[in-house]
Design goal:
The structure holds two protein chains of two kinds. Chain A is an alpha/beta fold. Chain A has seven helices and 14 strands. In chain A, the strands form three sheets. A ten-stranded mixed sheet of chain A has the order 4-3-2-1-5-10-11-12-13-14, sandwiched between helices. Chain A has a two-stranded antiparallel ribbon with strand order 6-7. In chain B, about 55% of the residues are buried. The chains are: A alpha/beta, B alpha/beta.
Amino acid sequence: MMAIAAARRLGDGDVCFVGIGLPSLAANLARITHAPHCVLIYESGTIGAKPTELPLSIGDGQLAETADAVVSVPEMFAYWLQGGRIDVGFLGAAQIDRRGNLNSTVIGDYDRPKVRLPGGGAAPEIATSARDVFVMLEQTPRTFVERLDFTTSVGDRVRVVVTDLGMLEPDEEGELTLTQIHPGVEPEQVQEATAWELRIAEELDVTEPPSDTELVALRSLRTKGAPA
Amino acid sequence: MAELLPLRAAVEQLVRDGDTVALEGFTHLIPHAAGHELIRQHRRDLTLIRMTPDVIYDQLIGMGCARKLVFSWGGNPGVGSLYRVRDAVENGWPQPLELEEHSHAGMAAAYAAGAANLPFGVLRGYERNDLATRTNVRRVTCPFTGERLAAVAAHRPDVGVVHAQLADRQGNVQLWGITGVQKEVVLASARSIVTVEEVVDELVPRPGGIVLPSWTVDAVSIVPGGAKPSYALGYYDRDNEFYVRWAQISRKRDTFAAWMEDNVLREHVLA
């Protein structure tokens, strides 16, 4: 559901900077359904990749083989990301706060961590260079926190947060607000999964159930290494 | 001019305890065999640089080769944690590991600056996050526009290590597919080792391929399969199943040690 909901937000022709896992699934789903001209850029250097199976790593061979161009990593970050050529950058995280700031670095104190996470990778500059940032993560009180343990990337370009329960978008004050719930989800559930007092839009949309086309496309992509 | 050397001799001659060593390969052409040779030769107190420390750095760090890690994303791609890196950072086992943590964009700029023999790289980055307080980044003002930008000190490793598909007999190196930061790391490093799948009489130009001229490389070692379980485009695929299995192998210290003994250290006896 998360992948389908995120895919629907992508426009045909959007240039997307995608990471592995759900963002890759969502962007590929969009590409093989309503947005055939969506351009997929993986940070490994592949521009316009058209994988038929979901890659396990951002550098899988088929990404390079199906790409329009393969560039070096310094070129990718300098010319393409910081050069302002990305419409939509996808990010995930272990923690998010109400402003859309993200933590993918550490749980607990940096010098004495409870859990050492992988770190920022491309995220800090995606967050400040992409036109729009889409965040995808599961909603629990441990992920939707009052205060981040570490700020890996800033939230001012976050346009939507897609979760397993619904979608949040920044209101006019920039605070993430529940604007959509997935079928069968109650707003109270979403509040329970959020550690701060959640703002809920007056007119709450309900996500359309997946269409047959979307389900078929999803199955065709989920052949290897794809998260559920 | 690059010398064609067996890998063991190349590592013996070019890598010293306490060196700053960068093994690069952005998900493709990861120099696993060279990393294993560093482990077999018990190199110690290394400062290891790598954008994406994954399984090979988990092994090097778990075997006690490293004092410090300079990186931007450390994980098992598509799978999860690096348990040996986490054990070193969270519990100081087998020894404490100092971290210098960057973003990918910062690492790429630092390598490019090193390759250009410039003192620092410049980027629009590290803005308003906590990373800037934890790493070697400063702010500079553009002399033309006044824009405030981030500056990262150039990476200048003592030794750069990469894997490539081909070399010729003069030691010119050719690689293609996802070429990552390999050119930059070789040019930025004082010394360099390149492992290759095979040596041929003549290199044929390839679309998207890059060539490292022989005189930019110190040692070329022929190691077929030297990137496994990573992949070499045109030779073999990524062993995704191994990366999944690594999570189980590396989770506990004893299963990790047993695996290293059977699969890395014992080869020394045979070699």
